[in-house]
Design a protein that fits this description.
127 residues, 82% helix, rod-shaped
Amino acid sequence: MAKQMEQVTRLQQLEALEQQLAKALESASLIITELSKDKSTSKQAECQIQAFIKSMESVDSGFQQLIGYLITVATAQPHEGSSYASHKDLHMSYHRQEHIKSRLSELDRLRNQHLHKSDDPKFDLSQ
């Protein structure tokens, strides 16, 4: 349930960023309209430029936060909701287990081979 709420929150953050980006594009449109006028006022254009810059800084900050989260997820660093690290550990445990089994089988084979040689009458240690 908490994981689902986190996903909803992330989607809401993306929607908010989309709205902020739309406002920034609106500001850019107003700037272009103002600058294309024959008698544009630099004070009004300056205010619109400042609104655009503020909108873009807000959008940039939001995307940086979301990208940071995605980097954390992708690099398997511990965080809520991730099971990648656990899956990786489990896979490595299975790999180690198979390696140990193969080594034990090899040692058992060598032990049996040695025991059979010692039972052989040609292999006498008393001489």
